[in-house]
TrEMBL record:
It catalyses: methanethiol + O2 + H2O = hydrogen sulfide + formaldehyde + H2O2 + H(+). Keywords: Signal. Its EC number is 1.8.3.4. It is an enzyme of class 1 (oxidoreductase). It comes from Methylocapsa polymorpha. Belongs to the selenium-binding protein family. This is Methanethiol oxidase.
Length: 428
């Protein structure tokens, strides 16, 4: 493994002034980096979907798919653009640069990163750069989370070049030039695994969560769950980092592979929430009565004995509600988290044969769901549904507005989503 040692001086220069550079964005819109400009607080115009190519389907390539989601448009609910990047490398997650002009998208298998211009014309993204030096620069593979800071992109990787999972964070500038690497702690209670990144600038903290290594996530799910030894190789920790120095400060025990992390966006709050994939729990990260950061189990999602596999979560802008998708049973859950220490499920609906990502509009009135988790983890046969579904939320029920069958349209497997407003400006 190469260059795994972080460069503290460079890291300090990179983020020394972050806490005061930009206001805390009250951003999926609600799940973006707090440094992301031009939030779409009104009606989003376009939905960008990062899709996995499927052998024997269309051009078989991973691609960025752009969908018109403005109900007033003549092409509402239709695909208006696709950009194929060549090959299949387990297309997974995306993230905007801080100015929201560019969208970085990664592949877990070959570790390539594709940069799309989505600012010039959001209806017609253009591939402008491919970055392929992450493994050589850091020893990490599987670029997963792309989290903007001013002029920089922090990338959370899922594994390493030996594929066992111990990994870290990498910092690039917006030109795509590597700056520094920061190993996730693998001693003193740390397990070294990585997954999501979430920053709270006002508290000068970064939270990271943990998943598993390439050897597991690129394996057939049925085989994996029957391999007792392999099932031990999942992350059971979260790490609290100092934002300015990019140094880890505290390790939390959070058993069961904690995945997405969402900070409360309510003014004055300083807590975040996550869900654990294998144990089906909600965990709260907040301060105890001694003002010390802690991680605390606060809720249960579905029936853990049936392993519903919680995947993506989306917090509302007012931090009163949390959407949770469970992959195995195809259900979408809504929790009242107005008291984050005692989440209560208030709604549940089967929204597919398998569901993964969930994104909501800033006002909470629209919810989008995609179906693909990982190519080797998706279900087989008739249950291998590959769709995007768009819903309106009226406060009582999710009402289907349109759906796109990605297999029928020869687009592949839909995974991560991001919104764009109209060209050149955010929605009002």
């Amino acid at each position: 493994m190469k260059r795994l040692v972080a460069r503290p001086l460079l890291a300090g220069l990179v983020v020394a002034a972050l806490a005061g550079v930009a206001p805390l964005a009250q951003a999926d819109e609600t799940c973006l980096s707090p440094y992301t400009a031009a939030l779409v607080k009104g009606q989003e115009a376009y939905l960008h979907v990062w899709a996995l190519g499927e052998k024997g389907l269309g051009d078989e390539s991973d691609k960025l798919v752009t969908i018109d989601v403005d109900p007033k448009s003549k092409t509402y609910g239709k695909v208006v653009n696709t950009v194929s990047v060549g090959g299949r490398g387990e297309a997974h997650h995306m993230g905007f640069t801080d100015d929201r002009k560019y969208l970085w998208a990664g592949r877990l298998d070959d570790s390539k990163i594709f940069v799309f211009d989505v600012g010039t014309d959001p209806s017609n993204p253009k591939l402008v750069q491919t970055i392929d030096d992450l493994p050589d620069q850091t020893g990490y593979v599987g670029p997963h989370t792309f989290y903007a800071i001013p002029g920089r992109m922090v990338i959370g990787a899922l594994s390493n070049t030996t594929h066992d999972g111990v990994t870290g964070l990498a910092v690039y500038n917006n030109k795509g030039e590597f700056l520094s690497a920061h190993p996730i702690p693998s001693e003193d209670g740390g397990d070294g695994y990585g997954y999501d990144i979430a920053i709270n600038p006002k508290k000068n903290v970064i939270l990271t969560s943990s998943f598993t290594g390439w050897n597991n996530y690129m394996r057939d799910l049925g085989q994996l769950v029957n391999d007792a030894e392999a099932m031990q190789n999942f992350g059971n920790t979260m790490v609290l980092w100092n934002l300015k120095s990019m140094q880890p400060e505290k390790i939390f025990a959070v058993p069961g592979a904690p995945l997405e992390i969402r900070w409360s966006l309510k003014e004055g709050d300083d807590w975040a929430i996550t869900a654990t994939a294998l144990t089906s729990k909600l965990w709260l990260i907040n301060r105890d009565d001694k003002n010390e950061w802690r991680a605390k189990e606060v809720g249960t999602i579905g029936d853990p004995s049936k392993i519903p596999l919680p995947v993506d979560i989306s917090i509302s802008a007012d931090a009163k509600n949390l959407w949770v998708n469970t992959f195995m049973d195809g259900k979408t859950h809504l929790f009242d988290i107005s008291d984050p220490e005692h989440p209560v499920q208030v709604y549940e609906k089967t929204t597919g044969k398998q569901v993964n990502m969930i994104s909501q509009s800033w006002d909470g009135k629209r919810v989008y769901i995609t179906s693909s988790l990982l190519a080797n983890w998706d279900k087989k046969g008739a249950d291998n549904e590959q769709v995007l579904r768009a819903y309106d939320w009226d406060g009582r029920d999710l009402n289907l507005k349109f759906e796109i069958d990605f297999f029928k349209e020869k687009l592949g497997r839909p995974h991560h989503m991001k919104f764009s407003g109209a060209a050149g400006k955010a929605s009002p």
